[in-house]
Amino acid sequence: MAENWKAPKLPVEGKRNILITSALPYVNNVPHLGNIIGCVLSADVFARYCRLRGYNAIYICGTDEYGTATETKAMEEKCSPKEICDKYHAIHKEVYSWFNISFDEFGRTSSPEQTEVCQAIFKKIFDNKWLSENTMQQLYCDTCEKFLADRLVEGTCPTPGCEYDSARGDQCEKCGKLLNPTELKNPRCKVCQESPRIRDTDHLFLELPLLKDRLEKYISEMSVAGGWSQNAIQTTNSWLREGLRPRCITRDLKWGVPVPHEKYSDKVFYVWFDAPIGYVSITSCYTRDWEKWWKNPENVELYQFMGKDNVPFHTVMFPSTLLGTGDNWTLMKTISVTEYLNYEAGKFSKSKGIGVFGNDVKDTNIPVEVWRYYLLTNRPEVSDTLFTWPDLQAKLNSELLNNLGNFINRVLSFIAKPAGQGYDSIIPSVPDDVSGDSHNLTKKLADKVAAYIDQYIEAMEKVKLKQGLKIAMSISSEGNAYLQEAEFWRLYKENRSLCSLVMKTAAGIVYLLACLLEPFIPSFTLEVFKQLNLPAEIHVSLSDDKGDVNKVKKPWEIISSGHRIGTPKPLFKELKDEEVEFYRKKFAGSQADRIVRAEAEEAANLAEQLKKTKVSDANGKKKSAKSSNEAKSKAAAEPDIITITRLDIRVGVIKKAQKHPDADALYVEEIDVGEEQTRTVVSGLVKYIPLDEMQNRKVCVLCNLKPATMRGIKSQAMVLAASNEDHTKVELVEPPSSAQVGERITFPGYEGNPDALLNPKKKVWETLQVDLHSNEELVACYKDVPLTTSAGICKVSSIRSGSIR
């Protein structure tokens, strides 16, 4: 049996043969949760569903290893690109293994098979005359003595209205526009920061305009037949409307698949051309008969999973490449695209180290099934979604623990009770005088379950994964309601026959839930089947061929009478408030910030230990480190550590605002900050905010600045406001409307008490102010940490990347 399982699967005539791929994760960093739900986990759920249904399916993925980003990372870590790839491929593999991702093959694009397949495809499109040669103007760095690949160039985005000053040479991360490096304003070399110059270099181009008719025919037919997600259709149509242009397929790099052409032998293939071919080459590592999957469109359906930024490469570029060969390729039937999963107040970011990463989750002691469940209930299918720790806590405690876990534990624990109290761990037999078809409550449950199973299958076939999960969980809710309405504990004493029917039916629902949820939380399914004392590898099935679907629609017939179950135990553990707060603080800010915090905590712990340590004086007498330190000169005392917690920023409400009697540019406000009396505050906001908009408005107030007299009126605090770069626009930083007046604004991950009054000579405010800003999501932040109240985060109206003061 094990040998058959390991043997490569090949398409089978007359069966549904499904080839599933996930966008190849780039190998230069550790994947974060947004990457994991965006493609790898989503594809895994669908692959497991296909196996559950008895389809002949394989799931192919691997690490994308060539290109500039790898070379750049290798330079940063002072090693070779190959060493970087080896290191991060192993990390990716370990992360996905922990997440129970069921690849049939997880490979890599730096393999000999990739070179072989990629060069073979190139030769065919070259021979078919779908390529052109052209001279490009490319940026050349005289300091580094080389042409700069796209990602080695940064500059200002040329797109009107964007003008992001850190746009990459291939794509602007802010507006999403694909770019050529020479289009950037004020370009700079990412390695040495010098300004590169433009130089001519010859390259090969795929003539997309010549393939337009074939491509459009494929897209118009397959987007309907495959039920492409709306975001995929919109992105693809946008590309077609803008007009297809020849796309360069070669690059002046060393790390990549060499171009098999004499004139271009010093170049490699550009990663957009090379990486999707990785699906094919990794399949060739899985089986020598890879063409039976990839050149068999009559018998194989190709499903591809990815984040929205990858769409054009899979709906335009890759199909055009395959069409250009003239071979009978298995082209993508269905594409499933996710939007972005954001983290707390901002975006997950590999480059900035923001968010929870794949290697972090193992250290949380939160089980894998909880992580999988939360990510899948939060899957960003039609719009961006948000990861927050309180939301994860709510999903675990209310949905997994109180709904699903509670139902299963009630059923199995009651069956496991000794005779006289339960069924002594034996699934009861149902006497002839009762039946599921004739008992109204049980029949009503079965009808609902049957409808839910049909809806589940329909949703999953359309790759509506979040909907499929929601439907499965609805069956658990119905099971709980069934137990309550049946009052099984009363029936056990008053009507044992009917109680046997109810418990046998409930045990069948437990079995059914374990099957339906296997694609989503497989470790949960294994544990439930262990508690049912049934082998999961045999019973996890919802195959039409075996009649499983009809069978589970009569839940009282699912598990045989007389079967002995295993030992029930709780399936989920409550996540407490203090644990949530701990994780919020632990994963606040960037990874660099976390390292600084960890080092600071370690230093504080060390200092605490030193205080308690006994040391000897010159006479051999022991005295405490404290008394020893007191003997040292006070002049050698450590300077104060400047940390954001020293600022006393509170939620305030402006009770009254008027113009300063002696200054046209100043307002005088009376602000309630939770004290017995209001504070008088003078602000230079007249030019920016109308007087009527200042009345009864909640604001963020810095309360421990030294009072200052401004044109005869003493200002006792400062209202925080954000301004744009040229200071032509200013907006107030606003707490949530439900925030409590007087509550202190916090910075998750930072602890400490504010100074009673800031010493102007210490420049505490001036030091911290430079890191106060509004981010791209309009969230007010210190570095990457949002200004936070008990009711949520503080924001500005429209100023992005503004300075807060």
UniProtKB/TrEMBL annotation:
GO terms (BP aspect): post-embryonic development; reproductive structure development; translation
Cross-referenced Gene3D superfamilies: HUPs, Isoleucyl-tRNA Synthetase, Domain 1, Methionyl-tRNA synthetase, Zn-domain, Nucleic acid-binding proteins
Record field: catalytic activity: tRNA(Met) + L-methionine + ATP = L-methionyl-tRNA(Met) + AMP + diphosphate
TRNA-binding domain segment(s): 643-746
Renumbered residue ranges of the record's region Disordered: 615-635
InterPro entries (alphabetical): aa-tRNA-synth_I_CS, Anticodon_Met, Met-tRNA_ligase_1, Met-tRNA_synth, Methionyl/Leucyl_tRNA_Synth, MetRS_core, MetRS_Zn, NA-bd_OB-fold
Subcellular location: Cytoplasm
SUPFAM superfamilies recorded: Anticodon-binding domain of a subclass of class I aminoacyl-tRNA synthetases (SSF47323), Methionyl-tRNA synthetase (MetRS), Zn-domain (SSF57770), Nucleic acid-binding proteins (SSF50249), Nucleotidylyl transferase (SSF52374)
Keyword Transmembrane belongs to the record: no
Gene Ontology molecular function terms on file: ATP binding; methionine-tRNA ligase activity; tRNA binding
Keywords: Aminoacyl-tRNA synthetase, ATP-binding, Cytoplasm, Ligase, Nucleotide-binding, Protein biosynthesis, RNA-binding, tRNA-binding
Pfam family, one: Anticodon_3
EC number: 6.1.1.10
The family this protein is said to belong to: Belongs to the class-I aminoacyl-tRNA synthetase family.
Protein name as annotated: methionine--tRNA ligase
Species name: Flemingia macrophylla
Lineage of origin: Eukaryota, Viridiplantae, Streptophyta, Embryophyta, Tracheophyta
